[in-house]
Write a structure and sequence with these properties.
- It is a single chain.
- The chain is about 15% helix and about 20% strand.
- By secondary structure, it is an alpha+beta fold.
- The strands form 3 sheets. Strands 1-4-5-3-2-14-13 form a 7-stranded mixed β-sheet, covered by helices on one side.
- It has a single domain, classed as Deoxyribonuclease I, Chain A (4-Layer Sandwich), CATH 3.60.10.
- The radius of gyration is 20 Å and the shape is globular.
- GO terms for molecular function: hydrolase activity.
- Keywords: Hydrolase, Signal.
- This is 3-phytase (Myo-inositol-hexaphosphate 3-phosphohydrolase).
- It holds the Pfam family Exo_endo_phos.
- It comes from Paeniglutamicibacter gangotriensis Lz1y.
Length: about 425
């Protein structure tokens, strides 16, 4: 969840003007030359669920992880990752290495136009052994701009002041804060990537847009995606799998109008509509002006921190329930195996189904299931899990403490037969 692990309270520098939004191209390119460190012998074996691959035939591991690699100032993450010594990044990278996904989405990873942070994390952390684990190489990566931190020019939060993170098109102190990055061992079909950063909330039919809170002028500029929505085609053995990546706004930090709860609902609904059942996504247009949903019959995986739990927390359960019950996809119900993610963990808003993916700590929401890997029914599922070792188990130091060494979220993975 955004704003849970902000390291300092320092305000960012003045953000870029709205006119520049979208002027920065997305970056997707192979590694030119990845740097490696000597692989040290592995210490104690990883958690059992980290290697739950069906032994028959090839398998594709797809994962999502809200890594909380956000910083309070623009450029700070790139500076932190320029050397291989950032402790939080090391912990995040070790978790990735222990689970070794083939396709990985990281949420809450600050965007910069040169992709310096994304490249440095790949080269200085993922491609170097962390804690004795084997490095992971990602020849392909995709990053693109985010609505976070882009000034709206309006008083979106109703505090009588125009400006600040809550008045941005997506909450953020600077443009690109809390962004996303996709890493892949398989080629990305960059020519056919679709992004939906600029889609206006008012253009969703029957939306929950609070018109009593936002006047007509504001409704004319307010985008629905708080970060963005991506459709990134990945080529796996001659087959195209569409990675549908998103990070809807948290359904909290608002007022009686519940604007963020409504936005979270509609961001998730947009994902569901985009999958295309019964023409539900015909209204959707991408950043190039192309209209329509995902092509019928496509293989896909929905990835991301959706900030919604159907059974607990502050989100509206209808949208996430509708997405999980979409007949075009399946919910593998990933859970931590022999780990700490069990019922009665947390303080408030406890997720009692044992499928939680985030622990927001004492006095907050407790354990919730907010991070999802939802593949299409055309992709057989072989295994699934949440990386959540408990005290005394190998790797527990990576997720323990407050704030945790890595993130308040846990890596979620699903093994598919491509």
């Amino acid at each position: 969840m955004v704003r849970k692990l902000i390291r300092t309270a320092a305000a960012a520098a003045t953000v870029a003007a709205l006119a520049l939004a979208g002027a920065v191209p997305a970056l997707a390119h192979p590694v030119i030359e990845a740097r490696h460190s000597t692989v040290q012998p592995n210490r104690a074996a990883p958690m059992p669920y980290a290697q739950g691959v069906d032994s028959v035939g090839p398998s594709l591991r797809v994962a999502t992880f809200n890594a909380s690699l956000n910083r309070p100032q623009a450029g700070q993450l790139a500076a932190d990752l320029a050397s291989p010594l950032d402790a939080q990044a090391q912990a995040v990278a070790e978790i990735v290495q222990r689970n070794a996904p083939d396709v990985l989405l990281l949420n809450e990873f600050d965007y910069d136009a040169d992709a310096a942070a994304a490249e440095s994390f790949r080269d200085n952390y993922l491609a170097r052994s962390q804690g004795g684990q084997s490095p992971v190489d990602y020849p392909y990566m995709y990053v693109a701009p985010s609505n976070t931190g882009i000034p709206s020019g309006a008083d979106l939060d109703g505090d009588g002041i125009v400006g600040g993170p809550a008045d941005a098109l997506g909450y953020g102190d600077f443009e690109g804060q809390y962004g996303m990055v996709l890493y892949s061992k398989h080629p990305i079909d960059t020519a056919n990537v679709r992004t939906f950063q600029n889609f206006l909330w008012k253009d969703m039919p029957d939306s929950q847009l609070p018109t009593e809170h936002y006047d007509k002028l504001v409704r004319g500029v307010l985008r629905l995606p708080s970060k963005s929505l991506w459709d990134v085609p990945v080529t796996v053995g001659g087959k195209t799998i569409h990675v549908i990546a998103a990070h809807p706004t948290p359904p909290v930090f608002d007022g009686p109008e519940k604007r963020n709860r409504a936005r979270n609902h509609d961001e998730i609904r947009m994902i569901n509509d985009y999958l295309g059942a019964d023409g539900a996504g015909d209204y959707i247009y991408d950043d190039e002006g192309k209209t329509g949903a995902l092509e019928a019959g496509s293989d896909f995986v929905v990835l991301g921190d959706l900030n919604a739990d159907a059974d607990a927390g502050d989100s509206s359960p209808e949208a996430i329930t509708a997405l999980r019950e979409n007949p075009l996809l399946q919910d593998p119900l990933p859970a931590a195996q022999q780990g700490a993610n069990h019922p009665r963990r947390g303080v408030a808003g406890i997720n009692n189904n044992g499928l939680g993916t985030a622990d927001f700590g004492r006095g907050s929401s407790g354990v919730l299931r907010v991070d999802y890997v939802l593949p299409s029914v055309t992709l057989p599922v072989r295994n699934a899990g949440v990386y959540w070792p408990e005290a005394g188990q190998d790797g527990a130091e990576l997720v323990s403490g407050w704030p945790p060494a890595s993130s308040d979220h846990r890596l979620v993975w699903v093994d598919l037969k491509p």
